[in-house]
């Protein structure tokens, strides 16, 4: 019986999967995941797709906020940039989606690095405010730059095409989204096994010490902004394909707060946590909708107040998690797993 | 250039700016005492305005009674939030504090929405609204009363911090918690008082906004975000900065609303304070009156 977490080599410490059974389980999980479109109705698949997009965005934000310690309230704006640049390249130049999505990521990465430049001088809450200000400025520019963004009316995005094959249903989009999700998760997991990822964590833990140890702060902070914004931009591009019509109102500041909520509830500085958080926050309103429509007979008022109820529950969850589970769902899952591993002799 | 138009804009800016100054003061009081960034400041303002409205139009209390009860309510709300939510987070990471106040703002906003709905509710007329002539321009009396209220409140607060025992203790806490503790000051109590004062001050801001606009709705909570450029301009830990910054941002907002909006077709008024915020952060990150921080390992 394993009674502890003993590692005898560096590579064992760095490995993603702790055992072969974990690999098998992951394989089974992926099989199950990719068979979802076979038996899942459209509405549920739509939610699953939104979860996938949220996972990409949440990992992106977690790279910046959870791993590098740079608080960003500008996530919604970054997403909007990804969505609108993908939409612009797609509609104006007729580029296929497999160019549009990386291009959207790159555009957002450039913008993210631009926003990140002041991060060398300002940090913590000043950076949070600067990114929030960036959000409002981007929102303003998107409304005003009508020739590119369509202004208030927004852009209508044609369904992505692969040759003559159109990804026009939730099931087809599902494969696009989840292939990208898997790439995103793998890249992020591996990122933190490399020098770059370690530098990010060093900056988060103690920026000045990191600098003394030879980490080039500006370079790595900008890199973190770039990688994070690339993720968020890709998520934004996927949102545009999924929503089909995007306008400045698609990306309000509450989206940024939702994403921060995801990584807080899931776990800061944890890839797995980003996934849990994305699932949790995306499902929350859906579960509320289900439960309120079930109770609609006895409490008709509840349905009318759904938006407020959703906000209330969201806020409560944020506060409760920060107060009682500050390391998030990922840590809780870990401790539950450890408890059962040693059951009944855990201490 | 039409000089009356300019003056009108500046006066509007001064009025809105004085309310910004008030809310920013509340923000700074909390930041100074406990280094917590309260992003729920706008919701404090909103809650205060709704409570006062309820007392005025439902229970038909005279204004001074309504405002007293609102004060008591806001103080209790502020203290409760500090005790239940912020105090357990002392010493925890900055993002937790930011996020918890964001969560709090969601909760308060949702509660108000559940109780009062999202429609604009007319605010009873507290001050006479007939305009008075100042030089060439007519100014609503409500504006003058608002500026008067803010001036009185800020003076009272300044006196409080300067002369009262509690005020001095709060300043001591702000300058060094450890030294304050050794001098027998209860730092916890000072935190609680600072939240209470902040909530009360914001409530006044909400009530004044309600009377000026003639009605209140959920958009009042945006004041909490509007106040960020103000505190950045003034310096996060300076009350004087909050006041000066509030007035500057208020005037700037109205000027860009008057002169830039027609050029770009609207929206400049809303975005101008944030552009100012970015510029200030680039060139003077600690604001006009803020204390420069030296970071050590």
Write a structural description.
- The complex is a heterodimer of chains A (347) and B (297).
- With 347 residues, chain A is an all-alpha fold.
- Chain A has helices spanning 10-14, 20-34, 36-39, 42-67, 75-92, 97-116, 125-144, 146-149, 170-191, 195-205, 207-212, 217-243, 253-266, 271-294, 300-304, 306-324, 328-341; strands at 155-156, 161-162, 165-166, 245-246.
- Chain A has a domain at 39-280.
- In chain A, the strands form two sheets. Chain A has a two-stranded antiparallel ribbon. In chain A, strands 2-3 form a two-stranded antiparallel sheet.
- Chain B has a single domain, classed as ABC transporter involved in vitamin B12 uptake, BtuC (Orthogonal Bundle).
- Chain B has twelve helices and four strands; from the N terminus they run H-H-H-H-E-E-E-H-H-H-H-E-H-H-H-H.
- Chain B is globular.
- Chains A and B meet through helix 7, helix 11, helix 13 and helix 16 of A and helix 4, helix 9 and helix 12 of B.
Topology (elements, then pairings):
The complex is a heterodimer of chains A (347) and B (297).
Chain A: H1 10-14, H2 20-34, H3 36-39, H4 42-67, H5 75-92, H6 97-116, H7 125-144, H8 146-149, E1 155-156, E2 161-162, E3 165-166, H9 170-191, H10 195-205, H11 207-212, H12 217-243, E4 245-246, H13 253-266, H14 271-294, H15 300-304, H16 306-324, H17 328-341
Antiparallel strand pairs in A: 1-4, 2-3
Helix pairs in contact in A: 4-9, 4-10, 4-12, 4-13, 4-14, 5-6, 5-7, 5-12, 6-12, 9-12, 10-12, 13-14, 13-17, 14-16, 14-17
Chain B: H1 3-34, H2 41-57, H3 63-86, H4 94-116, E1 121-122, E2 131-134, E3 137-140, H5 141-163, H6 165-175, H7 177-182, H8 187-213, E4 215-216, H9 223-234, H10 239-259, H11 261-264, H12 268-283
Antiparallel strand pairs in B: 1-4, 2-3
The total beta strand count of chain A reads: 4
The number of helical elements of chain B comes to 12
Q: Which pair of protein chains has the largest interface, and what are the residue counts? A: A-B, 46 and 45 residues
Low-confidence stretches of chain B: none
Q: Write down the Rg of chain B.
A: 19 Å
Tell me the helix content of chain B: over 70%
Count of individual helical segments of chain A? 17
Q: What is the general shape of chain B?
A: globular
Oligomer: heterodimer
Give Rg of chain A in angstroms: 21 Å
The main sheet of chain A comes to:
2 strands, antiparallel
Mean pLDDT of chain B: 86
Q: Please indicate the percent range of residues of chain A in DSSP E strands (runs of 2 or more).
A: under 5%
Q: Numbering strands along the chain, what is their spatial order in the largest sheet of chain B?
A: 1-4
CATH topology of chain B: ABC transporter involved in vitamin B12 uptake, BtuC
